[in-house]
Design brief:
Strand content: 15-25%
CATH superfamily of the largest domain: Enolase-like C-terminal domain
Largest sheet: 8 strands, parallel, barrel
CATH topology of the largest domain: TIM Barrel
CATH architecture of the largest domain: Alpha-Beta Barrel
CATH class of the largest domain: Alpha Beta
Number of domains: 2
Bound molecules: D-gluconic acid, magnesium ion
Oligomer: single chain
Radius of gyration: 22 Å
Helix content: 25-40%
Number of strands: 16
């Protein structure tokens, strides 16, 4: 299969730098590596010697995406023109017959981001420039503060403020709960996928509902009203419980309350909205514009968190962001450490351009992960700033990556005290 046409002699820069023959995809390889945690990376190479990278990491289900890419996607890419980003997206989405779902959309995202990266390198431009240029100097980010109890969590918030963060997410342990969501193991950065088989945690809603407002009362008392505060419920409440929490938190003026109830049935958010003006954020487990259509159209949320990596890449998230803008819903991309620096780089370029930007989640990657994925974005004055490297500005040291083979790791599960399964 070949899509090679002759465009020799065309004078403009694009054609001067890359004829369609140079843009032909000659290789697509999947790199699975565990520099502290598992990452899946797609590398696409062109005949002209340019390569692009896309993140394909789906936490706890990494090898499903790796196999989807290796077995079902890569053979379809060989011989295609890397410049036909939209057509390749449509080919992988419509052409596969089986649409949507986290595995498919993560695989499509990896291809899409790698192609945008190639386009940037060919054009000699950073990705934000290709999207339409800068809308802002840097992307406001929020850090993760957590503690075993309220006082430890509030101290952690203080440490991030000292480091220059303007927005901090706060989570704390709940008395009587053995492992509340978001709390790290003794001094280590928070990483939920810690064991080969899922850790079993226990959940108690009444205790949590009692603790969370006290946490924010204390954080506001300790740190004042300047810092933006966020909180993640991680899908644990029923709609009416979520409504109560959202109302109880109103005095502390949260930037957002995240995943207050599972969003499978989007109408559930109507109940929360009827009772509270606390801004709501949803979407890290969504993978398509269709997953959030009702929430956005009915103005049931304020921030959409679907990411570049799990939401079909730049091409699809751009459609989602434009749709959300019609309803004044802003972006707030998921940015936990299980999204690789490749995703972070792409997300930051998007954040730098997208008019309806809200905030970007930012958990620090380990030093080792940063060495495996050298990048040019950096934190300054509460914001992340992208560089002007052509493409998304993130590369991979394949030799170093090869030294850290895949380790099976799964996310925890939650059960109620009587043993019944609950949402983690
Ligand atoms: C967040 C998320 C994470 C997820 C994790 C799952 O808001 O950062 O909820 O903590 O649980 O990314 O892979
Ligand atoms: Mg979350």
């Amino acid at each position: 299969m070949s899509h090679v046409e002759s465009e020799a002699g065309t004078p403009d820069r694009w054609h001067a730098q890359a004829s369609t023959r140079d843009r032909e995809i000659v290789a697509a390889s999947v790199i699975v590596s565990c520099p502290g945690r598992n990452f899946v990376t797609l590398k696409i190479q062109t005949r002209g010697g340019v390569h692009g990278l896309g993140d394909a990491t789906l936490n706890g289900r990494e090898l499903a995406v790796a196999a989807y890419l290796r077995e079902h996607v890569a053979p379809n890419l060989i011989g295609r023109d890397a410049g036909r980003i939209e057509d390749i997206w449509q080919f992988l989405y419509r052409g596969a017959y089986w649409r949507r779902g986290p595995v498919t959309m993560t695989a499509i995202a990896a291809v899409d981001v790698a192609l945008w990266d190639i386009l940037g390198k060919l054009a000699g431009m950073p990705l934000y420039q290709l999207l339409g240029g800068r809308s802002r100097d840097g992307a406001l980010v929020y850090a993760h503060a957590n503690g075993r109890d309220i006082s430890e969590a509030s101290d952690e918030v203080g440490k991030y403020i000292e480091q220059g963060f303007l927005a901090v997410r706060a989570q704390c342990g709940v008395p009587g709960i053995n492992k509340a969501y978001g709390i790290s193991t003794a001094g280590k950065p928070y990483e939920p996928a810690e064991s080969e088989l899922p850790a079993e945690t226990v959940w108690n809603t009444p205790r949590y509902l009692e603790t969370a407002p006290k946490l924010f009362e204390r954080v506001r008392a300790d740190h004042g009203n300047q810092v933006e505060l966020l909180h993640d419920v991680h899908h644990r409440l029923t709609p009416i419980e979520a409504a109560r929490l959202a109302r109880d938190l109103e005095p502390y003026r949260l930037f957002w309350l995240e995943d207050a109830t599972p969003a499978d049935n989007q109408k559930c958010f109507e109940l929360i909205r009827q009772h509270s003006v606390t801004p709501l954020a949803v979407g890290e487990v969504f993978n398509s514009i269709w997953d959030c259509k009702h929430l956005i159209e009915q103005q049931l949320i304020d921030y959409i968190r679907t990411t570049i990596v799990h939401g079909g890449g730049i091409s699809h998230i751009r459609r989602l962001a434009d749709f959300a803008a019609l309803y004044q819903v802003r972006t707030g991309f998921h940015g936990a450490t299980d999204l690789s620096p490749v995703c972070m780089g792409a997300a930051l370029h998007f954040d730098t351009w997208v008019p309806n930007f809200g905030i970007q989640e930012y958990m620090f990657h380990s030093e080792l992960a940063n060495e495996v994925f050298p990048h040019d974005y950096h934190f300054r004055d509460g914001r992340l700033h992208v560089g002007d490297t052509p493409g998304h500005g993130v590369d991979i040291d394949e030799q170093l990556a090869a030294r850290f083979p895949y380790l099976p790791r799964q996310l925890p599960v939650a059960r109620l005290e009587d043993g019944a399964m609950w949402d983690w």
